[in-house]
Amino acid sequence: MSTRKDKFSKKDRYFMKLAINLARNQSGLTGSNPSVGCVIVKNNKIISYASTNINGRPHAETIALNMNIKENIGSTVYLTMGAMFTLWKNTSRVQKHL
């Protein structure tokens, strides 16, 4: 997957659209937190997905990563919002599962 806008594949666009739709489904239900969607894909197959829960906890990425901990290595995460800074600052939940 490329970070350049013009280099996203049709599959990248498809999986990201799914993540956006997951986020939209929770819109207005996540308290002060944004509604976020997360889709995790490995070998072009969705292995887990989630959206931020009611009142904003747990976060979408936490739920999705916990669904298939052993399958996460080598996968691609489509997330409608960047993972929380604190996840990357210390030993993160993302690193723990990847």
Features:
about 100 residues; alpha+beta; 3-stranded antiparallel beta sheet; disordered C terminus
Whole-number total of structural domains = 1
What would you report as the Rg, rounded to the nearest angstrom? 13 Å
Query: What is the string of helix and strand elements?
Result: HEEHEHH
SS class:
alpha+beta
CATH architecture: 3-Layer(aba) Sandwich
Distance between the termini: 17 Å
Residue-averaged pLDDT: 83
Instruction: Give the strand tally.
Output: 3
User: Which CATH class?
Assistant: Alpha Beta
Helix content: 25-40%
Protein model, in words:
The protein is α+β, with helices and mostly antiparallel strands. It has a single domain (5-97), classed as 3-Layer(aba) Sandwich (Cytidine Deaminase, domain 2), CATH 3.40.140.10. 35% of the residues lie in helices and 17% in strands. The protein has helices at residues 10-25, 60-67, 85-89, 93-97; strands spanning 37-42, 45-51, 76-79. Strands 2-1-3 form a 3-stranded antiparallel β-sheet, with helices on both faces. The protein is globular.
